[in-house]
Amino acid sequence: MEENEQLTPAAATEQPERSQKKPYQKLRTAFFALCVAFLLLAVLGIVLGTTKVQMCREVRFFSCDSRGFHLVSCGVQTVKREYAPIAVDSLPTPDAALFGEAMRGDVDYYETGEIKEVPIYEQKKIDKFIFSMVIVVQNGSIASDERQTDMIYLASWNPLQQKFTAVSVARDTLVPLSEDEWKRINTAYARGGVGLLINTINDVFGLDIQNYVVTGTDELITLADGVNGIPATLSKEEAAYINEACGGSLTAGKQQLSGEEIVTLLSDRTSDNKGDLGRADRQAEIVDDAFRYMQDQFSSEFLYPFFRTIFKSIRTNVDFDTLRGVGYEMAVSDELTFETLRLPFDDAYTELNVDGAYAVLPAFEKNRILLRQALYGKDNAESSADGTETPSRAWVLPIVLSVAAVIGAGAAVLAVRRGKKKRQGFEKS
């Protein structure tokens, strides 16, 4: 038995060589496997990047049932601008004739049928930590094709400072829609949808807004009634205005208004003799009152049913998790700062009257500075109206994966070569 176990000289020579070569063979196989894995990782990164970049930043309609939220359809895209934006500061001051043309009604596009959906143009990011958006309350229902609006808000959320800012935009604010056409700002929404409205605001006021939420006054009534109304402090004139429109018996002072009453108050532009500027101020105040009320009434049992109601009542390109996260953080924050303002700002506009038509011409540069301070807390933020493409966050993961793949594959190749050289040197020795 012992004789059979003894190895011949040749076999004794071959055995060490096989045992010496085996670790290097395993190492080489492992590194080649790593190369293949890193190659697959790079392909995955490219696929993810292509998919994310081509995926549209679209209008999202959410419906709700007992199981949760569902994406129903999409529409407005975010694209790179292919032409220079309007250079507002280089435009000549509009003369009386142009003012008259700009202020002659704001529904002429329905007569011509020139209604289209304009894409949102990418903008250079002013502050990557701040989430900003446009909020539009369309007259009537969001299901309607008649996209008139008397309520436009610019909003920003700064999670680092726990600050939410809402700026009510006077719908009679006069802005250029092209180099030779001025119109009230709500015309942009009616003529080209939320895309043209966002592009106009970004160009004229040097902002970087890409996100939006659109609802309607019909949906707003439902939302307000869903929280048992909204409190508001009324003047005698405001109470009389609501009573006449809604047939109620409200009096001056703090009142709990129904959905219909709150929407009527939001539309009021006559009771204080301040026209559209007074209405914009009132809209800012009501938003503040509504938020304070919601924060006081907040409970976890109330939050989720209310969000289900909200998502049945809006169009947005913001995903549900983001909206829910912002809303939840605002609702539970003990250090939240909430600020409401009006655009154009005080002492930064000129009121115009042409043949009985009214509009407000903003001082663009002054309003740009004040808006940056309000929305971003910046005095010297660079203008984002140059149309520079915003680096897509969708590329971050693909870039990281691809770089990791290249580095990993390179390291694997070098390791294999070094292992091969060591083995050759060992064999020679």
Please describe the structure with a list of short key phrases separated by commas or semicolons:
429 residues, alpha+beta, Nucleotidyltransferase, domain 5, 2 domains, two-stranded parallel sheet, 16 strands
Present the secondary structure layout:
Elements: H1 2-5, H2 9-54, E1 60-65, E2 68-71, E3 78-79, H3 96-103, H4 108-112, E4 120-121, E5 131-138, E6 149-158, E7 163-169, E8 174-178, E9 181-184, H5 185-205, E10 211-216, H6 217-226, E11 230-234, H7 236-246, E12 253-257, H8 259-266, H9 275-297, H10 300-311, E13 315-316, H11 320-332, E14 337-343, E15 349-354, E16 357-362, H12 364-376, H13 396-428
Parallel strand pairs: 3-4, 5-10, 7-14
Antiparallel strand pairs: 1-2, 1-13, 5-6, 6-7, 8-9, 10-13, 11-12, 15-16
Helix pairs in contact: 2-13, 6-8, 7-8
Explain how this protein is built.
The chain is α+β, with helices and mostly antiparallel strands and 429 residues long. The chain has 2 domains: 2-53 and 397-428; 81-225 and 292-388, Nucleotidyltransferase, domain 5 (2-Layer Sandwich), CATH 3.30.420.590. It has 13 helices and 16 strands. It has helices at residues 2-5, 9-54, 96-103, 108-112, 185-205, 217-226, 236-246, 259-266, 275-297, 300-311, 320-332, 364-376, 396-428, and strands at residues 60-65, 68-71, 78-79, 120-121, 131-138, 149-158, 163-169, 174-178, 181-184, 211-216, 230-234, 253-257, 315-316, 337-343, 349-354, 357-362. It has an 8-stranded mixed β-sheet with strand order 2-1-13-10-5-6-7-14, with helices on both faces. It has a two-stranded parallel sheet with strand order 3-4. Strands 8-9 form a two-stranded antiparallel sheet. A hairpin with a 2-residue loop joins β1 (60-65) and β2. α2 (9-54) runs antiparallel to α13. The longest helix is centred in the N-terminal third of the chain and has 46 residues, at 9-54. It is elongated and about 100 Å long. The two termini are 35 Å apart.
